[in-house]
Specification:
The chain is mainly alpha-helical. It contains 13 helices and seven strands. The protein is globular, with a radius of gyration of 20 Å.
């Protein structure tokens, strides 16, 4: 057999076809949304414009999920090198710069999600000064949410709100890269020091002894004493919300990469092993891992997409080849299931990339719909799988 007779593997062919289908949807959404923003989730499998909020008009840059749209555009540029995707991604810098400059909807730890994808990426790649200044301003604002003496970053809302005071959530593990980048950019270690302390607190308290995770955890804001774990979007306070467990896989792994703290790598493996042990036959989790065999419950394709990325991140950090291969194989199985059973390619008219996600089941929000973070991490998983030497934005 000659080199020209060698055919791509079925996985490679499927992933190439999935990339092409995803890019067609991204391109159509550039025409639809441009530098405006889709809603958090689809409605009847179709993204409308983001509704008016925080005194801003329809399609404005508000909420915690808007950066996943330019994040997808940067991934599209990684996959194609196309000028159209580059222009579209860069077109969002001004909106994010204005958002932080004018104090629009900033009372959230999700500034890390928002500014890592939208502004740190162009600052790193092109030295975009406005993007860098906006991302540093966002990092400064995020630092105002560090609560002493607990040393945690408060999750949501006004810092004086008694219901939110002292609360952090597992998603915050994905917000710390903004702080690590800020320290690397400025030479000021206080950003990274805050991220290190926050992550250590989550490893100790939000990760439970049985390998599951709380969604949210409270500390006493006056004494710093750990108080209790709860859930907002999971089935119960003592269950294991699937998306949170996926954030744990990816988030602890990313923070290990920045810190070299071996306990964080162990935490990522602990989250991964529990997640993988509680998947149904098609490798895509139910919205809470308590429902590993409950066919009357919805799947969360977004948790699967996040986990697929996190498992590869984890494998890349391990020195044990056998264990690393096991996580990579699990990531491939999850991604293939998303491609074959959950993507919108070829069988449904939708402007999302994958369907059957869950935003907040207890509140009935975005249940069995596409969502922006699911689409982003699905495209990130495809980019990881098909782009040798890909540079992780996190």
């Amino acid at each position: 057999m000659t080199a020209t007779d060698v055919r791509p593997s079925p996985d490679a062919e499927a992933m190439a076809a999935a990339v092409a289908a995803a890019l067609r949807t991204v391109d159509a959404n550039i025409d639809t949304f441009g530098d405006r923003y889709p809603a958090d989730t689809t409605a009847a499998n179709h993204y409308p414009l983001r509704p008016p909020a925080a005194g801003q008009p329809e399609g404005a840059n508000v909420g915690w999920t808007t950066s996943f749209w330019p994040g997808m555009l940067w991934l599209a540029h990684d996959l194609t090198g196309g000028e159209r995707h580059l222009r579209a991604a860069l077109s969002h810098v001004n909106s994010f710069a204005d958002r932080v400059a004018y104090g629009i909807d900033l009372d959230t730890h999700d500034l890390g999600f928002l500014y890592t994808l939208s502004c740190v990426t162009p600052a790193r790649r092109f030295g975009d000064r406005r993007a860098e200044e906006a991302a540093l301003a966002a990092a400064d604002h995020l630092m105002t949410r560090v609560l002493e003496p607990a040393g945690i970053i408060q999750a949501w809302g006004d810092l004086n709100d008694p219901r939110q005071r002292g609360r952090t959530i597992i998603d915050s593990l994905m917000n710390t890269p903004l702080l690590f980048w800020a320290s690397a950019t400025t030479g000021d270690d206080r950003y990274a020091a805050a991220a290190r302390r926050h992550t250590a607190q989550l490893r100790q308290h939000i990760l439970r002894p049985d390998g599951t995770t709380f969604h949210t955890f409270y500390w006493d804001p006056a004494t710093g004493a750990p108080l209790r774990g709860e859930t907002e979007q999971g089935h119960a306070d003592d269950s294991c919300w699937a998306r949170g467990q996926a954030w744990g896989i990816y988030g602890f792994g990313i923070n290990y990469r920045y810190t070299g703290d071996a306990s964080l790598l162990v935490a990522a493996q602990t989250c991964a092993d529990y997640f993988l042990a509680h998947l149904p036959d098609d490798h895509v989790a139910y919205w809470d891992l308590a429902f590993a065999d409950r066919k009357d419950q919805e799947r969360d394709s977004s948790a699967a997409a996040i986990a697929a990325c996190g498992l590869v991140e984890l494998a890349d950090n391990l020195t044990d080849p056998a264990r690393a291969d096991r996580y990579r194989e699990a990531a491939t199985l999850i991604l293939r299931s998303l491609i074959d059973n959950y993507s919108t390619a070829g069988h449904l008219v939708s402007n999302s990339l994958i369907l059957h996600g869950v935003y907040d089941k207890p509140k009935g929000v975005g249940v069995d719909e596409g969502n922006l973070w699911g689409d982003y991490f699905y495209l990130e998983a495809l980019t990881r799988a098909t782009t040798p030497g890909w540079t992780n934005p996190w």
